Amino acid sequence: MRTPIGHATVPVGQNPMGIAYDSSKGEVFVPNYFEDMVSVISDATNTVIGTIAVGSESGGTAYDPAQGEVFGTDANSSTVSVISDAADIVVATVP
User: Fold this and answer.
1) Could you tell me the mean pLDDT of each successive run of 10 residues in the chain, 95 residues long?
2) pTM of this structure
3) I need a labelling partner for 30 at 20 to 30 A (CA). Which of 4, 10, 44, 84 fits?
């Protein structure tokens, strides 16, 4: 199967679960369920530009453009990781 023009496959961690997109920075956040991390992808280069350690069994994500934060569920930890998209780090963990 051929990849359509303008599309790419970007390898991330094991069992990616969900996606959040920051259009102002051109970054995509993908939680990797079995690796307890979120991959950060540049939409300009279609490459992983960083990873962020989060709680156990990371899953669904949502992006808040007003606050510049990504919220990710951590199923096994029963928490939500709050990620700053400016620094690409966890700034809070909410039970």
Assistant:
1) 70 91 94 94 95 92 95 93 94 96
2) 0.88
3) 4
